[in-house]
Amino acid sequence: MCLGNSTMNQEATFFLPLLSILRKRAEASGNKEELEDVARKEALPKILHVTQNNTCDMPKTASRLISHGGYKLIFLHDSEGKGILVLRDIVGDNKDESGRAVPFLIMITSDTYDEIEKLRHIAAYWSNHIEEVSQKVASFITYDRDANGIRFALHDFNEWLPLTEADSSKVETIKGNVQIGDTNSFLLISAGLSSSAIKGELGLSESTIKIIPVEKILPLDNPTKAKSMLVKARAEAALRRKRKIVYYAIGGAIAIGIIVYVISTKH
Fold it and tell me: 3-state DSSP: the chain helix, strand, coil percent, rounded to 5?
């Protein structure tokens, strides 16, 4: 589904899957109020259904990012010169017929140098604020009873998105900052998955992508958790250093023992 773009000034866009049924029903009944209601709904700005014939200017690379999972977020500067940002597994209030949450993804694309650079900074912010961003994005998509369909708050989204542009394109992790460079893609993968397998599925080479497990990212939207992660990471690093020191101390003692033994046998 194509929700809209940054140049549109409409308040919202709508996906109305029952509109054709309502039209037939109104035409069959001839009811004036029903016909007027259908006409009003038909005039609403629509969320477009993306098809092979109507791509909504979606980059060719995007189809692979949509059809393959195993990652949480990706920023890609593709070979066509397009910037692509995808955040997956967003859970909103919408449920299926069994009452289960229906996760979805959001993709943002840009095609000018300035806009791609902005998108790179947005990707950095989103990486460190995944829960906050996911909840906010989900809040823009609601069920509209009056329209009898899905409503995307386009104006509010266009107002909010620039606010998520970080001061830099650096992502904060427990091991330091990671730069989303001009020629690099950036990928956050879920825990327990093979980075090589994900790269293969997405068609990305080692030299063009930086991969970080989600659990290594500092959640700056949850300062308490971020602090706890840093404390734990520093403690583990200190323990590794201590083990290294103990190892070398034992090694040194053994070496001295051998030297003394060799020398003593000569007397």
Answer: 45, 25, 30
